Each structure stands twice: as C-alpha cells, then as structure tokens.
Amino acid sequence: MMPAQPCDRNYYLLELSASEFGLLRLHLTSFDLGVGDRLHDVGREVDQVVFPHSGLVSMTLSLPDGGEAAVSFVGRDGIVGGFAAAAGTPATCDAEVL
Fold first, then answer.
1. Please, are residues 83 and 29 in contact by the beta-carbon 8 Å criterion?
2. Which of 21, 38, 80, 89 is the S-S candidate for 50 at Cβ 3.0 to 4.6 Å?
3. Runs of H (alpha helix) within the chain
4. CA distances, 21 to each of 6, 9, 27, 43, 46 (Å)
5. Which has the closest alpha carbon to 37: 22, 27, 52?
6. Separation of alpha carbons 93 and 8, rounded Å
7. What residues form DSSP beta bridges with 74?
C-alpha cells in the first residue's frame, strides 16, 4: 500500500476518479489549520475551497439576537466553501475550525 499523499486524506477526494482528480490536482495545496482559524465569514466572498484532512469545521449562522446556531459540521468526508466559490456568491454562514 502506498502512503497517502497530503491531498488524498479527504474522503471526498478519494472518491473521485483518476481523471476527475487530475483536473483538481494542480490546484490543490496542503496547509495546516488550527483551532479557531476562520475559513470564511457570512456575507464575504469565498475564495478558497477547503477539503479538510482531519478535525471538524463548524458552519454557523449568526442570529438576529446576537447568538449563533450551528448549521453543520464538516469533517474529512466533505468540502467547505465549494458551492459559494463555484457560484461566485457570498458565504451564507461562518466557517471556523474546531
């Protein structure tokens, strides 16, 4: 068994065919994220799509009373920011590394 490449640790990427992964490969960069890092904020442009390798990213929505509601959690089986970046729309929630 070959050792996993940094961009191969995300289960979503592992499920892509070789030709699909080939289209993305040149655009992928591996980098470390720490607890509290913000990936994007509601209403702002999303300029990066993140395929987490481990841990969780909390996707939260700010409420009118100042509180927050968790919308979802994304781990190494998902994507953060994909739809907004592809559609060129602002983020609909905040994304923070847990």
1. no
2. 80
3. 11-14, 18-25, 82-87
4. 13, 13, 10, 30, 22
5. 52
6. 27
7. 57
The closest of 69, 76, 68, 85 to 8, measured between CA atoms, is: 76
- Is pTM beyond 0.90? Reply is no
Instruction: List the structure tokens of 39.
Output: 């990936």
Q: For residues 65 and 22, which has the higher predicted lDDT (pLDDT)?
A: 22
93 in Cβ contact with 41 (< 8 Å)? no
Separation CA 52–CA 31 (nearest Å): 10
CB atoms within 10 A of CB 15: 10
How confident is the model over 9-48, as pLDDT tens digits? Answer: 899 999 999 999 999 999 999 889 999 999 999 899 998 9
